[in-house]
Design brief:
The complex is a heterodimer of chains A (200) and B (250). By secondary structure, chain A is an alpha+beta fold. Helix content of chain A is 56%, strand content 20%. Chain B has one domain. Classes of the chains: A alpha+beta (200), B mainly alpha (250).
């Protein structure tokens, strides 16, 4: 009897943990539209302080980003493989924080704008790209979210591994910066630079 | 029952392991090849000068252009500034049309021509943008640098221009071409009738107003972008190169 219960709980836990953030291909556009709408609603709340807005927004979008993969691509396989596991974890954490801070800060600038979802299109190597357009005061900007399927079996789990702002890939940009810095600095020195709060 | 759970657990674990080990290598390589290689040397013979000019431009932006733009934004209502911005966009139509035509983008050329007529006639000489807002005709920004790229001209090395910012050999050549066609310069005065400024001073004044007005609608964007840089010069160089590449592909 007890075992049965345990089994049920196990099943349930397994079920919840897979369904919570496993985005299917045909859900991407709907769910992202909802998420972006929610983000815009939060941004419109004028009396909410920025850091509170940021927290709420991060909650909405967190589950669709694969920060670990982003960190790995940004650093490049070669460097990543030379790091010990705790170092890899530390780097991922710092990089994730950097991305989030930068994102929240940008949101502050774009608080009365509209986003148009243009559509989900096939991208390199069977991956997908969600094209969106931000309508600003003096023109519109293309923002594209690149998705890949993390799951290797039939279950789909689509996650974002890169964001493209007017043709500039965020991950590519960090990749070039890291590569440039690592020519002159050690990894630890670079990590300090990355961790430093944005004060300049 | 116990066995079943055990098997289930075992299955999940072995599965997780498989996911982590065997697939990760291909998978990493696959992503690594999508992005440009780290070891690629960027040919940047002017990097010393470029760094200094980047600092100069940065300081000019923060201490000169930005304070002026902020003061101007304070006294000028936003709808007027958007109107002026539309006006400048509209009047630069010859540059867009010429380059759309040179790149054989006839559909876009027609749309540009349509936009110019609609906005000039029904948009108070370009202060309003009914073409975009009512007719959903989008602008197709093309310049000579993109046209050269379209015909396979390589970018050459990176050059940071005073006041204008990141550029490269190809785009500098492009700027000369654009200046010739643009109504807001005096370049090619004798051949082209629609030039607005008569002297170099007038040209600089017009460009100055345009720069201040345009920047007043983008306040804070540069500072925010700058915070993402671990090292400002290569950061600006790389995003410029990526953005231009994308613009040329489109």
């Amino acid at each position: 009897m007890k075992l049965k219960k345990l089994f049920k709980i196990l099943l349930l836990v397994g079920f919840i943990s897979t369904s919570a953030n496993a985005l299917k291909q045909d859900e991407i556009q709907d769910i992202m539209t909802k998420k972006i709408d929610n983000v815009l609603t939060i941004l419109e709340q004028k009396n909410l302080p920025t850091n509170k807005k940021g927290e709420q927004i991060i909650k909405i979008i967190d589950e669709v980003f694969d920060y670990e993969l982003m960190a790995r691509i940004a650093l490049g396989k070669e460097t990543w493989d030379t790091l010990s596991e705790p170092k890899q974890k530390k780097f991922t954490k710092i990089f994730e924080t950097k991305l989030k801070n930068s994102y929240i800060e940008k949101l502050e600038l774009y608080n009365d704008q509209k986003v148009k979802i243009l559509g989900l299109n096939p991208y390199k190597n069977g991956r997908l790209q969600l094209e969106t357009e931000l309508l600003g005061k003096e023109g519109s900007y293309k923002i594209n979210y690149n998705f890949y399927n993390k799951s290797k079996d039939n279950n789909e789990q689509w996650l974002i591994y890169d964001v493209d702002l007017v043709g500039v890939s965020i991950i590519q940009t960090y990749r070039q910066q890291f590569a440039g810095l690592l020519k002159e600095k050690t990894f630890d020195e670079m990590l300090v630079l990355l961790e430093k709060p944005n004060t300049k | 029952m116990k066995n079943l759970i055990f098997i289930l657990l075992l299955l999940t674990f072995s599965f997780a392991n498989e996911n982590n080990d065997t697939n990760n290598n291909d998978f990493d390589n696959e992503f690594d090849s999508e992005f440009s290689t780290n070891n690629e040397e960027i040919f940047d013979p002017l990097s010393g000068y470029n760094r200094i000019m980047t600092t100069f431009n940065d300081k000019t932006f923060i201490y000169v252009l930005n304070p002026i733009s902020k003061g101007y934004a304070y006294i000028t209502p936003e709808p007027i500034r958007i109107g002026i911005n539309n006006f400048f966009e509209n009047i630069m139509f010859p540059v867009r049309l010429t380059n759309n035509l040179l790149q054989l983008k006839f559909q876009n050329s027609t749309e540009e021509l349509g936009r110019f007529l609609v906005n000039t006639l029904w948009g108070l000489a370009g202060f309003l943008d009914p073409a975009t807002n009512e007719l959903h005709m989008n602008a197709h920004k093309e310049d000579f640098g993109q046209t050269l790229g379209f015909y396979g001209v390589g970018q050459g090395f990176h050059v940071v221009l005073p006041f204008l910012g990141p550029s490269n050999l190809r785009d500098i050549a492009g700027l000369v071409g654009d200046a010739f066609v643009s109504p807001l310069t005096i370049t090619g005065d004798g051949d082209i009738q629609y030039k607005i400024p008569n002297t170099f001073e007038q040209q600089m004044a017009i460009q100055g107003v345009n720069a201040i007005n345009s920047n007043s609608l983008k306040l804070g964007q540069y500072e925010s972008l700058k915070k993402d840089a671990l090292d400002l010069y290569p950061f600006l160089r790389d995003i410029y190169t990526q953005a231009r590449k994308k613009q040329i592909e489109e």
